[in-house]
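To the wet lab folks,

You asked to see what we're planning to order before we commit. Fair enough. Below is the target structure as tokens, and below that is the sequence we designed to fit it. If anything looks off to you, flag it before the synthesis order goes out.
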């Protein structure tokens, strides 16, 4: 029998404190009934034999000492079914698209079960995003967690939508059943304007049909923000490991999620860690990020692209710093490239995909992928260094060779990185474009590419002229 208490002693921000006469389970779901008959849901955040701290999902406005508290004896569950594809839900999992109520095939706790490390399968299969700066230089692998590091005002949402629209598993393309690939989109603390842009794009392009969208807006309670990614990841695990989908989870913005953790920590009067964030933030982020992966014997996979805006464009800030420790690389959105009109403004030099080498090459992408990527990176890095030198000595003081590298750096940004948000390039097009750029150098400069590959792919000047004609 459910016990009901009228013992609220304190309300602090999003938290309600109540006295109890027996221990209550951690993470247990609570119903709070206000004097006017409204029912709010919450979750036990802290529990002793004398009191509990409850985080209220819908906010504490209207709750007072006359409100009653009921403990339901269960943790928060996500209703799961394949019919969730194409639906738009609130940050706490309630339908907000005007569609029918969800009739679940099963329900699972949103906390999720940790994947046994011995049951994990090593990620080594390519996901094509259609974005050259990612596919060519920082390849996304199934089961990987690859965050996007951005800054305030930069177009990370446009890149997120482009990836959600275009991402495919290449080996599945010949199949009639395209539903093998699904996208879970979890938005946390975004503005109503951003939400409308997301939904317009999803509906205009038809991407919504293979997506599940969780939408937590900036004016929604901060506490709801802490359950949104867990709802999204529970749905992803169900589709991947029960229904054999390859699932791409895009979470934006993790900075808003961490700010919610800080707000709750302050309400609990916890001793703060770096810059006021809770000392357990690393553990909390790891609980989310480590839910990506593959499991031996299961067809599906969960791949994550968390997006975070670095406060002050500072990658030593606790949020990007801790995220970098847990994840397998990062994609940097660059303010200078954005000001030049490059779309998407991905800076490949500080970007990294630690699993890239295992998921490219013959049988995955193309046999020349690794060599072309290495040569493009080296040539672009040299061109970047020479830009600094030109500012000091002027272009006339450089050798003919150095001028070639300077020209290459410009061409790389304007032709390879620049593609717009509506252009979908397959990996073959991306690599061919790389060869077109590298063929501006004499063959002896291509010292990171195997000679056999140069003989096969190098574009001679005559060929280039004929192709242009």
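Sequence we intend to order:
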């Amino acid at each position: 029998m459910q016990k009901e208490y009228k013992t609220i002693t304190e309300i602090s921000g999003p938290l309600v404190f109540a006295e109890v006469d027996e221990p209550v389970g951690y993470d247990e779901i609570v119903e709070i009934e206000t004097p006017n008959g409204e029912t709010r849901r919450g979750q036990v955040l802290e529990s002793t034999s004398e009191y509990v701290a409850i985080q209220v999902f819908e906010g504490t406005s209207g709750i007072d000492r006359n409100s009653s508290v009921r403990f339901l004896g269960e943790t928060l569950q996500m209703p799961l079914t394949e019919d969730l594809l194409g639906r738009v839900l609130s940050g706490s999992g309630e339908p907000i698209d005007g569609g029918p109520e969800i009739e679940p095939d099963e329900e699972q706790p949103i906390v999720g079960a940790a994947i046994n490390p011995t049951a994990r399968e090593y990620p080594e299969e390519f996901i094509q995003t259609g974005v050259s700066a990612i596919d060519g230089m920082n390849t996304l692998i199934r089961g990987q967690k690859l965050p996007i590091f951005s800054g305030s005002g930069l177009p990370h949402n446009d890149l997120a939508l482009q990836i959600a629209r275009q991402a495919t598993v290449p080996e599945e393309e010949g199949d009639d059943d395209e539903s093998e690939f699904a996208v879970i989109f979890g938005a946390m603390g975004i503005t109503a304007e951003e939400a409308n842009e997301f939904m317009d794009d999803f509906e205009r392009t038809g991407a919504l049909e293979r997506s599940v969208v969780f939408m937590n807006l900036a004016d929604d309670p901060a506490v709801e923000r802490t359950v949104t990614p867990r709802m999204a990841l529970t749905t992803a695990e169900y589709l991947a490991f029960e229904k054999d989908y390859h699932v791409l989870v895009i979470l934006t913005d993790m900075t808003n999620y961490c700010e919610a953790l800080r707000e709750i920590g302050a309400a609990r009067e916890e001793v703060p860690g770096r810059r006021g964030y809770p000392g357990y933030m690393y553990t909390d982020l790891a609980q989310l990020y480590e839910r990506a992966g593959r499991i031996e014997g299961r067809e599906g996979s969960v791949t994550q692209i968390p997006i975070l805006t670095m406060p002050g464009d500072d990658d030593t800030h606790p949020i990007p710093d801790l995220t970098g420790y847990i994840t397998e690389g990062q994609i940097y959105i660059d303010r200078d490239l954005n000001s030049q009109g490059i779309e998407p403004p991905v800076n490949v030099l500080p970007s990294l995909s630690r699993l890239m080498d295992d998921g490219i090459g013959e049988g995955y992408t193309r046999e020349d992928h690794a060599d072309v990527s290495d040569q493009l990176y080296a040539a672009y890095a040299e061109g970047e260094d020479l830009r600094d030198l030109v500012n000091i000595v002027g272009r006339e003081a450089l050798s003919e060779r150095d001028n070639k590298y300077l020209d290459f750096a410009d061409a790389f940004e304007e032709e390879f990185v620049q593609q717009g948000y509506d252009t979908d390039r397959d990996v073959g097009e991306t690599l061919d474009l790389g060869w077109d750029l590298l063929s501006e150098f004499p063959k002896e400069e291509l010292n990171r590419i195997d000679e056999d590959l140069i003989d096969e792919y190098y574009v001679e000047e005559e060929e280039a002229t004929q192709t242009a004609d």
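Structural context that might help your review: Confidence is low (pLDDT under 50) at residues 172-179. The radius of gyration is 25 Å.

Thanks,
Computational group
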